[in-house]
């Protein structure tokens, strides 16, 4: 009996300590994802976001009245280990803020994500900082606080599998998921 208990505890310890987790070690910023990566990630992320809202296809965007130019542009990408909105994404954030400012009946959930580097706790925090950065930018440009909510998934919901830089760049993002309030 004691031997079985010992073996069960040893097995549980192996399972717990066997999970791979590494601390972010690099500090250099990497170039933004190529346009092909951004469009692929946006299409993947938007399809998932639409499905999670319970609506399929363009109907989700039409339901909230999202302009056609923003339908496929609901992902903001970030540099490695950063929560600063890139200069090339500021106009996109401003366009979403303008849309939200004119539509009090629409809300958006800002979902923060990271690549797989870093501990689970660190990545949850970084995903939250990214979501909060987008929230602050939207708020400063006219979106109401009660239209915005944030959640961090850290590394738990990757847009792309793989450990190459292109895949990791697609995972460093905030997705804007629209819905009626």
Description:
- This protein is of the alpha+beta class and 181 residues long.
- It has seven helices and four strands.
- The chain has helices at residues 2-17, 35-52, 59-64, 68-71, 90-101, 120-140, 165-171; strands at 75-77, 106-113, 148-154, 173-180.
- A four-stranded mixed beta sheet has the order 1-4-2-3, sandwiched between helices.
- Helix 6 (120-140) links the parallel strand 2 and strand 3.
- Helix 5 packs across helix 6.
- The radius of gyration is 19 Å and the shape is globular.
- Mean pLDDT is 76; it is low at 10-59.
| 3D shape | globular
Strand share of the residues?
5-15%
Total helical segments: 7
Q: Tell me the span between the first and last alpha carbons.
A: 57 Å
SS class: alpha+beta
What ranges have pLDDT less than 50 throughout 5 or more consecutive residues? 10-59
Rg measurement, Å: 19 Å
Q: Please summarize the sheet with the most strands.
A: 4 strands, mixed
Strand-and-helix sequence, N→C?
Answer: HHHHEHEHEHE
Report the average pLDDT across residues.
Answer: 76
- Strand order within the widest beta sheet: 1-4-2-3
Number of DSSP strand runs: 4
